[in-house]
Design goal:
Blueprint (H helix, E strand, L loop, with lengths): L8 H11 L4 E3 L2 H5 L17 E4 L3 H14 L3 E4 L16 E4 L6 E5 L4 E4 L5 H10 L2 E2 L12 H7 L6 H4 L2 H4 E8 L4 E5 L12 H4 L7 E9 L1 E2 L3 E9 L2 H5 L2 H7 L6 E6 H11 L11 E9 L2 H17 L6 E3 L2 H12 L1 H6 L10 E2 L5 H15 L5 E4 L4 E4 L9 H21 L15 H7 L1 H14 L12
Parallel strand pairs: 2-4, 3-4
Antiparallel strand pairs: 1-2, 5-6, 6-10, 7-11, 8-9, 8-10, 12-14, 12-15, 13-14, 13-17, 16-18, 17-18
Helix pairs in contact: 10-12, 15-16
Bound molecules: flavin-adenine dinucleotide (FAD).
Flavin-adenine dinucleotide (FAD) binds next to strand 3, helix 5 and strand 10.
Amino acid sequence: MNEFKKVDERVVKELRRITSGASVIYEDKETLKNYSHDESGGEYYAHMPDVVVKVENADQISKILKFANAQHIPVTPRGAGSGLAGADVPLYGGIVLSVEKMNRIIEIDKNNLVAVVEPGVVTNDLCKKVADGGLYYAGYPMSVETSFIGGNVATNAGGSKVIKYGNTGHHVIGLEVVMADGQIVEFGGKRRKDSSGYDFIHLFVGSEGTLGVFSKIYLNLIPLPGKTVDLLAPFKDIETAISNVGRLMIESKTLPSAIEFIDGISVKLGSVYNNIKLPFQDEAGAYLLIQYEGRKKEEIEDLYEIGGKALMAGGAMDVFVADNRTNSEKLWRIRRNWLEGIKAFDPYAPTGDVVVPTDKIPQIMQYISEISTEYKVQIPVAGHAADGNVHPAPMKPEKISPLEWKDLSEEILDKIALKAASLGGAISGEHGVGFIKKDLLKKTKPDQYVFMKKIKDIFDPTGIMNPGKLY
Ligand SMILES: Cc1cc2nc3c(=O)[nH]c(=O)nc-3n(C[C@H](O)[C@H](O)[C@H](O)COP(=O)(O)OP(=O)(O)OC[C@H]3O[C@@H](n4cnc5c(N)ncnc54)[C@H](O)[C@@H]3O)c2cc1C
């Protein structure tokens, strides 16, 4: 099955003919290298593509897939390359199909509250554009300033706002998909309901480029809430911090738009990177960062008073309120730049991504702490407390070589992922499986895996779509 045809001059000539030449990169090793990896593990997880095609429309994608399917050439769809699971690494070489030029916001429909976009739109560009018109796109991964909407859909990206608004899949109401054989098919559209047949849209969500290429995406918008307030609460340890999550939501009688957590080591590293000092930084073992949204000043004042009281009753050392942009941005910078803060000290730190039922966060944190002691490795952790998504980032001890570290850090993260699954969680909450976690997928979801593979074989019988991912 994996005996693919090698890309040669004749293949490249055909790709140039399809795209009128300008967007095909071949033999330019330096440029091709940029498309050989995502943000997961640098050179150790990289693989060079034979050719990169920067497509401009669905028609070009269709012709390329028809051709690749007939010739049996692997095709790897690529968004912004910000992924953390190696999902867009072209493991078998072949064609990398980049959607970076397909970055048009086609329509913001204020009557239906729907945005229609091409897959290469940067997430934050859409957020800003719809906000200008009083609307809100609630998909918000921490990589919002770099990742593309298409990549978000293909990984079912999460982020800090999942507790209130759901992950990316919740916002997708329609997709135009170019299937592996080149056929262009519309699923859903501007309609909000559809009980006629299988829900294909949510089969494509999280499919990591293995079933087809999204060429147009219909997204649900909502009215912009208007005002926000952020609360920062330091705690002596993570158990006390997490014990607040459920109660906080019940007592404030509302869903916050975020309840994030960040541990003490991460705050210290982030504080150096961002040049910001948080209160209680030397004493606190963990922080919660909570965001409420409301229409009026009085409404959010009421929310932060109730929330603040609940947090103090739940063991917070203090509660700090940021109700203006500058102070809010300071708090969020530490959380949003969590990974960069760690990478500034250790460029080899990989990022884990597991999910557990929220009340199991202390158990998984305890396990991470045991692993940290057993392997004598520092493991800073942050995550989305409200939805149980935990990101451990083991840091390379000085004496271990980067290559040895690749194997050791994989072993550490695999153990944590398996523990999460045993607690009723899963091996990925939002970054996806890619090729790095594919063995774990099979191990933890053996029954589902069989059905997933059958579906893959129906949609992509020749196996050209992003081979080596998920399976
Ligand atoms: C600093 C940092 C913070 C991050 N924070 C978060 C976070 O909070 N939440 C979160 O979920 N993720 C986060 N990520 C991970 C990453 O940003 C997401 O996985 C994102 O959704 C990937 O989008 P992308 O455009 O970069 O896609 P890529 O990484 O290029 O590709 C990801 C997958 O999507 C597929 N794909 C891309 N475009 C298409 C298309 N048009 N059709 C079909 N398949 C396609 C690719 O084949 C691949 O399988 C973070 C990453 C970094 C570096």
